[in-house]
């Protein structure tokens, strides 16, 4: 990992159920190994989907939407694996429950940060529509309004987002959760921990890429060192190297943003700005018509991409939130008396 962490904590809501499963020294049965291999093969296929055919396909909104889709699928697969392995939760230790609530809130927080940035970008889209609307007329007054909307877009898009700035500390906590807990007495526990590790790596990678893309900074970009013992390690390393390198190249090259759709909009605006600022009481010129047409296409592409990605981020938020609710339901039905734990996490459950 790129940043060493002091806190080594569990990442998913499954506590420490392994002490009650089987005797010390239990080895994985052939059936359990088949379950694990199938899980990891599916994980590797999802990682392969994120390897683009060309570098231009990296870090567009379609790629980010696919990345979030695969993340939702992997988290749902963990839930299914829990059911298949029949791991009970009734005897979980209070400290593990408390850790889960803490970490799951961080996942919800980072989802909220991403959603807030997508909403901010969507609000900027309204300013672009104003630019296009005002350029539909050849009057100098409309050009002045277009210039005003253009200035508003530049200010809005360059204002930054404090919630994205806070993603770094959240990612630090997620990085600190990657270490596998030692499981000595449970074959099922070992299978679950290895499966969970793969999903944890996928989660930190996707979240760090999103944070870097939205912030326009490499400081939130993580480099995860995955051991070669995992069947999906080579695929993951290739994906991570490709994506991280593109982020570095784009940011070091002076690009306005690493996101392709935003860069396309900005390129059109760069061409448009000097033209409309120099036009006074004149009809539309051919260069202006062409650039306005290109800006319209780029603006529509940006809007559609933001809408689709927002839906997938909301879906991931729902996956995490339903996991919390399912754990609460299981604990209450088991009569474990978790009121004192819940009281300490009451504020954390109120996620904006």
Automatic annotation (TrEMBL):
Instruction: Kindly list the places in or outside the cell where this protein is found, as annotated in its UniProt entry.
Output: Membrane
Alphabetic keyword roster:
Membrane, Transmembrane, Transmembrane helix
Q: How does it sit in the membrane?
A: Single-pass membrane protein
Q: Name one GO cellular component term.
A: membrane
Q: What is its main location?
A: membrane
Kindly give the PANTHER family that the UniProt entry links to this protein: BPS1-LIKE PROTEIN
Similarity-based family: Belongs to the ROH1 family.
Q: What is this protein called?
A: Protein BPS1, chloroplastic
- Organism encoding this protein: Cajanus cajan
List the taxonomic lineage.
Answer: Eukaryota, Viridiplantae, Streptophyta, Embryophyta, Tracheophyta
């Amino acid at each position: 990992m790129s940043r060493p962490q002091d806190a080594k904590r569990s990442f998913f809501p499954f506590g420490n159920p392994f002490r009650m499963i089987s005797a010390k020294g239990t080895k994985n049965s052939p059936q359990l190994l088949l379950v694990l291999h199938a899980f990891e093969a599916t994980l590797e296929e999802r990682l392969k989907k994120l390897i683009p055919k060309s570098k231009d396909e990296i870090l567009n909104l379609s790629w980010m939407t696919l990345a979030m889709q695969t993340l939702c699928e992997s988290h749902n697969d963990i839930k299914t694996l829990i059911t298949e392995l029949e791991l009970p939760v009734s005897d979980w230790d209070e400290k593990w429950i408390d850790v889960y609530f803490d970490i799951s809130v961080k996942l919800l927080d980072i989802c909220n940060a991403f959603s807030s940035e997508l909403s901010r970008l969507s609000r900027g889209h309204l300013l672009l529509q104003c630019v296009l609307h005002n350029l539909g007329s050849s009057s100098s007054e409309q050009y002045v309004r277009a210039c005003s909307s253009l200035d508003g877009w530049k200010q809005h898009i360059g204002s930054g987002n404090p919630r994205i700035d806070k993603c770094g500390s959240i990612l630090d906590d997620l990085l600190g959760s990657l270490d596998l807990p030692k499981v000595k007495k449970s074959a099922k526990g070992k299978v679950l921990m290895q499966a969970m590790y793969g999903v944890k790596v996928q989660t930190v990678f996707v979240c760090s890429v999103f944070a870097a893309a939205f912030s326009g900074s490499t400081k939130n970009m993580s480099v995860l060192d995955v051991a070669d013992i995992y069947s999906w390690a080579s695929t993951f390393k290739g994906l991570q190297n490709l994506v991280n390198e593109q982020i570095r190249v784009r940011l070091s090259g002076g690009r306005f943003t690493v996101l392709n759709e935003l860069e396309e909009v900005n390129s059109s605006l760069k061409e448009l700005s000097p033209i409309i600022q120099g036009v006074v009481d004149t009809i539309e010129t051919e260069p202006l018509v062409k650039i306005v047409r290109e800006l319209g296409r780029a603006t529509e592409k940006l809007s559609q991409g933001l809408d689709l990605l927002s839906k997938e981020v909301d879906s991931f938020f729902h996956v995490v939130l339903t996991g919390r609710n399912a754990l609460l339901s299981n604990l209450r039905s088991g009569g474990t008396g978790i009121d004192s734990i819940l009281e300490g996490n009451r504020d954390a459950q109120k996620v904006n």
